[in-house]
Design goal:
The complex is a heterodimer of chains A (113) and B (110). With 113 residues, chain A is mostly beta strands. Chain A contains no helices and eleven strands. In chain B, strand 6 and strand 7 form a beta hairpin. The chains are: A mainly beta (113), B mainly beta (110). At the A-B interface, strand 5, strand 9 and strand 10 of A face strand 4, strand 5 and strand 10 of B.
Chain lengths: 113, 110
Amino acid sequence: NAGVTQTPKFRILKIGQSMTLQCAQDMNHNYMYWYRQDPGMGLKLIYYSVGAGITDKGEVPNGYNVSRSTTEDFPLRLELAAPSQTSVYFCASSLEGRDEKLFFGSGTQLSVL
Amino acid sequence: GEDVEQSLFLSVREGDSSVINCTYTDSSSTYLYWYKQEPGAGLQLLTYIFSNMDMKQDQRLTVLLNKKDKHLSLRIADTQTGDSAIYFCAESIGDYKLSFGAGTTVTVRA
Protein backbone atom coordinates (compact mmCIF):
# COMPACT_ATOMS: atom_id res chain seq x y z
CA ASN A 1 0.00 0.00 0.00
CA ALA A 2 1.22 3.48 -0.82
CA GLY A 3 -0.92 5.05 1.95
CA VAL A 4 -1.80 8.70 1.31
CA THR A 5 -0.20 10.22 -1.78
CA GLN A 6 -0.10 13.95 -2.42
CA THR A 7 0.98 15.76 -5.55
CA PRO A 8 2.73 18.03 -6.27
CA LYS A 9 5.33 18.30 -3.48
CA PHE A 10 6.15 21.93 -4.28
CA ARG A 11 4.42 24.64 -6.26
CA ILE A 12 4.81 28.36 -6.79
CA LEU A 13 1.75 30.30 -7.92
CA LYS A 14 1.20 33.87 -8.94
CA ILE A 15 -1.56 35.84 -7.26
CA GLY A 16 -4.89 35.07 -8.92
CA GLN A 17 -3.84 31.77 -10.45
CA SER A 18 -5.74 28.55 -9.79
CA MET A 19 -4.54 25.07 -9.02
CA THR A 20 -5.65 21.71 -7.68
CA LEU A 21 -3.77 19.80 -5.02
CA GLN A 22 -4.23 16.11 -5.52
CA CYS A 23 -4.70 13.54 -2.76
CA ALA A 24 -5.28 9.83 -3.09
CA GLN A 25 -5.40 7.00 -0.58
CA ASP A 26 -5.41 3.26 -1.21
CA MET A 27 -6.49 2.09 2.24
CA ASN A 28 -10.24 2.23 1.53
CA HIS A 29 -10.64 4.89 4.19
CA ASN A 30 -13.98 6.62 4.45
CA TYR A 31 -12.77 9.84 6.05
CA MET A 32 -10.44 12.28 4.36
CA TYR A 33 -9.16 15.68 5.45
CA TRP A 34 -7.23 18.69 4.23
CA TYR A 35 -5.11 20.63 6.71
CA ARG A 36 -2.81 23.59 6.31
CA GLN A 37 0.25 24.11 8.47
CA ASP A 38 1.64 27.57 9.06
CA PRO A 39 4.92 28.21 10.92
CA GLY A 40 4.51 28.20 14.69
CA MET A 41 0.87 27.23 14.46
CA GLY A 42 -0.98 23.99 14.71
CA LEU A 43 -2.65 22.35 11.78
CA LYS A 44 -5.88 23.98 10.73
CA LEU A 45 -8.65 21.93 9.15
CA ILE A 46 -9.76 23.28 5.77
CA TYR A 47 -12.30 20.71 4.58
CA TYR A 48 -13.16 17.13 5.34
CA SER A 49 -15.21 14.32 3.88
CA VAL A 50 -16.94 11.40 5.57
CA GLY A 51 -17.45 9.47 2.37
CA ALA A 52 -17.82 9.73 -1.38
CA GLY A 53 -20.16 12.56 -2.31
CA ILE A 54 -20.09 14.16 1.14
CA THR A 55 -17.90 17.10 2.09
CA ASP A 56 -18.00 19.73 4.81
CA LYS A 57 -16.16 22.84 5.89
CA GLY A 58 -13.51 22.89 8.55
CA GLU A 59 -12.07 25.85 10.44
CA VAL A 60 -10.55 27.75 7.50
CA PRO A 61 -12.45 26.92 4.27
CA ASN A 62 -12.46 30.35 2.63
CA GLY A 63 -10.67 30.41 -0.71
CA TYR A 64 -10.80 26.63 -1.15
CA ASN A 65 -13.09 24.03 -2.63
CA VAL A 66 -13.14 20.25 -2.54
CA SER A 67 -14.91 17.34 -4.14
CA ARG A 68 -15.11 13.65 -3.29
CA SER A 69 -16.36 11.71 -6.30
CA THR A 70 -14.62 8.49 -5.26
CA THR A 71 -13.50 6.93 -1.99
CA GLU A 72 -9.87 7.17 -3.07
CA ASP A 73 -9.52 10.79 -4.20
CA PHE A 74 -10.02 14.08 -2.41
CA PRO A 75 -8.65 17.04 -4.44
CA LEU A 76 -8.36 20.54 -3.00
CA ARG A 77 -8.89 23.45 -5.36
CA LEU A 78 -7.62 27.00 -4.98
CA GLU A 79 -9.53 29.26 -7.36
CA LEU A 80 -7.85 32.66 -6.96
CA ALA A 81 -4.58 32.20 -5.14
CA ALA A 82 -3.66 34.81 -2.53
CA PRO A 83 -0.42 35.30 -0.54
CA SER A 84 -2.31 34.28 2.62
CA GLN A 85 -2.60 30.80 1.13
CA THR A 86 1.17 30.30 1.23
CA SER A 87 1.44 27.27 3.49
CA VAL A 88 2.15 23.58 3.69
CA TYR A 89 -0.91 21.51 2.89
CA PHE A 90 -1.48 18.05 4.26
CA CYS A 91 -4.03 15.51 3.22
CA ALA A 92 -5.00 12.81 5.71
CA SER A 93 -7.37 9.89 5.95
CA SER A 94 -8.85 7.60 8.56
CA LEU A 95 -10.92 4.46 8.41
CA GLU A 96 -13.82 5.10 10.73
CA GLY A 97 -13.35 8.69 11.82
CA ARG A 98 -14.44 8.15 15.38
CA ASP A 99 -11.06 6.88 16.55
CA GLU A 100 -9.38 9.66 14.62
CA LYS A 101 -6.11 7.89 13.95
CA LEU A 102 -5.06 9.86 10.95
CA PHE A 103 -2.68 8.79 8.20
CA PHE A 104 -0.98 11.77 6.59
CA GLY A 105 0.50 12.40 3.19
CA SER A 106 3.95 13.99 2.90
CA GLY A 107 2.56 17.44 2.16
CA THR A 108 2.52 20.07 -0.57
CA GLN A 109 4.53 23.23 -0.03
CA LEU A 110 2.74 26.09 -1.79
CA SER A 111 4.03 29.62 -2.24
CA VAL A 112 1.84 32.37 -3.68
CA LEU A 113 3.83 35.36 -4.89
CA GLY B 1 -12.87 26.22 23.26
CA GLU B 2 -10.68 24.09 21.08
CA ASP B 3 -7.21 25.46 21.87
CA VAL B 4 -4.37 23.06 22.42
CA GLU B 5 -1.22 24.62 23.83
CA GLN B 6 2.29 23.30 24.02
CA SER B 7 5.73 24.79 24.41
CA LEU B 8 7.50 25.42 21.12
CA PHE B 9 11.02 24.15 21.77
CA LEU B 10 12.84 21.52 23.81
CA SER B 11 16.55 20.73 23.79
CA VAL B 12 17.72 17.49 25.36
CA ARG B 13 21.00 15.62 25.61
CA GLU B 14 21.25 12.23 23.97
CA GLY B 15 20.45 9.49 26.48
CA ASP B 16 18.41 11.75 28.76
CA SER B 17 14.63 11.69 29.04
CA SER B 18 12.49 14.19 27.17
CA VAL B 19 9.20 15.45 28.54
CA ILE B 20 6.83 17.32 26.27
CA ASN B 21 3.82 18.97 27.85
CA CYS B 22 0.43 19.93 26.46
CA THR B 23 -2.76 21.47 27.78
CA TYR B 24 -6.12 21.11 26.11
CA THR B 25 -9.53 22.62 26.65
CA ASP B 26 -12.25 20.20 25.60
CA SER B 27 -13.09 18.04 28.62
CA SER B 28 -15.26 15.81 26.45
CA SER B 29 -12.34 14.70 24.27
CA THR B 30 -12.45 10.94 23.84
CA TYR B 31 -8.88 10.46 22.73
CA LEU B 32 -5.71 12.49 23.01
CA TYR B 33 -2.89 11.97 20.58
CA TRP B 34 0.78 12.54 20.01
CA TYR B 35 1.95 12.86 16.43
CA LYS B 36 5.56 13.08 15.25
CA GLN B 37 6.69 15.04 12.21
CA GLU B 38 10.18 14.52 10.81
CA PRO B 39 11.70 17.10 8.43
CA GLY B 40 9.98 17.19 5.05
CA ALA B 41 7.43 14.56 6.00
CA GLY B 42 3.83 14.35 7.06
CA LEU B 43 2.69 13.65 10.58
CA GLN B 44 2.79 10.12 11.89
CA LEU B 45 0.74 8.87 14.82
CA LEU B 46 3.14 8.15 17.65
CA THR B 47 0.78 7.13 20.41
CA TYR B 48 -2.61 7.97 21.88
CA ILE B 49 -4.48 7.63 25.12
CA PHE B 50 -8.14 7.08 25.83
CA SER B 51 -9.60 9.71 28.11
CA ASN B 52 -10.47 7.27 30.90
CA MET B 53 -6.82 6.28 31.31
CA ASP B 54 -4.16 8.01 33.42
CA MET B 55 -1.12 6.50 31.84
CA LYS B 56 -0.05 4.53 28.82
CA GLN B 57 3.38 3.04 28.22
CA ASP B 58 4.68 1.91 24.87
CA GLN B 59 8.36 0.93 24.84
CA ARG B 60 10.32 4.17 25.36
CA LEU B 61 7.17 6.30 25.37
CA THR B 62 5.05 7.12 28.39
CA VAL B 63 1.89 9.21 28.13
CA LEU B 64 0.45 10.76 31.27
CA LEU B 65 -3.03 12.27 31.37
CA ASN B 66 -4.36 14.53 34.10
CA LYS B 67 -8.00 15.10 33.23
CA LYS B 68 -8.64 17.42 36.14
CA ASP B 69 -5.98 19.86 34.91
CA LYS B 70 -6.50 18.98 31.21
CA HIS B 71 -2.80 18.24 30.99
CA LEU B 72 -1.13 15.69 28.75
CA SER B 73 2.54 14.81 28.65
CA LEU B 74 4.79 12.61 26.55
CA ARG B 75 7.98 11.21 28.05
CA ILE B 76 10.62 9.73 25.79
CA ALA B 77 13.15 7.64 27.68
CA ASP B 78 16.77 7.37 26.51
CA THR B 79 16.31 10.04 23.85
CA GLN B 80 18.14 9.33 20.61
CA THR B 81 19.14 11.55 17.67
CA GLY B 82 16.35 9.93 15.66
CA ASP B 83 13.87 11.43 18.11
CA SER B 84 14.66 14.92 16.82
CA ALA B 85 11.39 16.06 15.29
CA ILE B 86 8.32 18.18 15.89
CA TYR B 87 5.79 16.61 18.25
CA PHE B 88 2.14 17.58 18.03
CA CYS B 89 -0.44 17.12 20.73
CA ALA B 90 -4.01 16.73 19.47
CA GLU B 91 -7.43 16.29 21.01
CA SER B 92 -10.60 14.94 19.47
CA ILE B 93 -13.22 17.66 19.16
CA GLY B 94 -16.03 15.73 17.58
CA ASP B 95 -16.83 12.48 15.89
CA TYR B 96 -14.11 12.86 13.31
CA LYS B 97 -12.10 16.00 13.88
CA LEU B 98 -8.91 16.82 15.72
CA SER B 99 -7.54 20.04 17.15
CA PHE B 100 -3.76 20.27 17.01
CA GLY B 101 -1.29 22.24 19.07
CA ALA B 102 1.44 24.30 17.40
CA GLY B 103 4.03 21.56 17.87
CA THR B 104 7.13 21.21 20.06
CA THR B 105 10.43 21.08 18.21
CA VAL B 106 12.69 18.62 20.01
CA THR B 107 16.41 18.91 19.36
CA VAL B 108 18.67 16.14 20.59
CA ARG B 109 22.28 17.19 21.18
CA ALA B 110 25.23 14.88 21.55
